[in-house]
Amino acid sequence: MPWRDWIRTVEIEPSLYAADFSRLGEQTMGPIVLKDVAPIVHRYQGAMDVHLMVENPVKYFEPVAAAGGDSVTFHYEAVDDVAATVRAAREHELQVGIAFNPESEPEDVAAVSADADIVLCMGIHPGYSGQPFREETFERVSRLRAVLPDQVFIQVDGGVGPDNVRELFERGTRLLVAGSAIFAREDLPRAYRRLVQALA
């Protein structure tokens, strides 16, 4: 399903990266887990976006697609040719996202992202869940929205929580990835609703 058909106004996306892995069984994250989780998500009309924090993302596109992934997001910093990487993902009928780290300039990323579906502005430096949100992300999202084609959605991942979701939305974010803000709480549905209420 294309992102434009799935996004209503704004979406809160729970990140399995922050989940309790003991409840995902004994297998590791990757296509093996995706293959088990994707049918459940699809049953409820959800989509599976796989964020690849790897140096050679292209080699993972086929296994992600075969395991039920709907979209794959790779890092701008990890590839030499963004356009070719986007085309490689499309060959496997995947939606495509381009992520970028706090060190990269939003304008540079936007310049090579016109053919993507989403651009992911990291609110932390990738590596581990639970890091504090970087306040400069607000301004980086505004800069990104100013130069990105209208049809490309902005996603933010890292430090997303009830204290910043509203401003991120107002600055142009339509996909908000929440990890610790949901999975670090005892009542997961209540934590999700708290984020939704913060956007109201």
The secondary structure category is alpha/beta
Count of beta strands: 7
Strand content: 15-25%
As a whole number of angstroms, the C-alpha radius of gyration is 16 Å
Low-confidence stretches: none
Q: Can you count the helices?
A: 9
H-E order: HEHEHEHEHEHEHEHH
Taken from the alpha-carbon principal axes, the silhouette is: globular
Structure report:
It is built from 9 helices and 7 strands. It has a 7-stranded parallel sheet with strand order 1-7-6-5-4-3-2. Strand 6, helix 7 and strand 7 form a beta-alpha-beta unit. The relative contact order is 0.15. Helices cover 36% and strands 17% of the residues. It is an alpha/beta fold. The radius of gyration is 16 Å and the shape is globular. The model has no long low-confidence stretch (mean pLDDT 88).
Entry summary:
With 200 residues, the protein is an alpha/beta fold. Helices cover 36% and strands 17% of the residues.
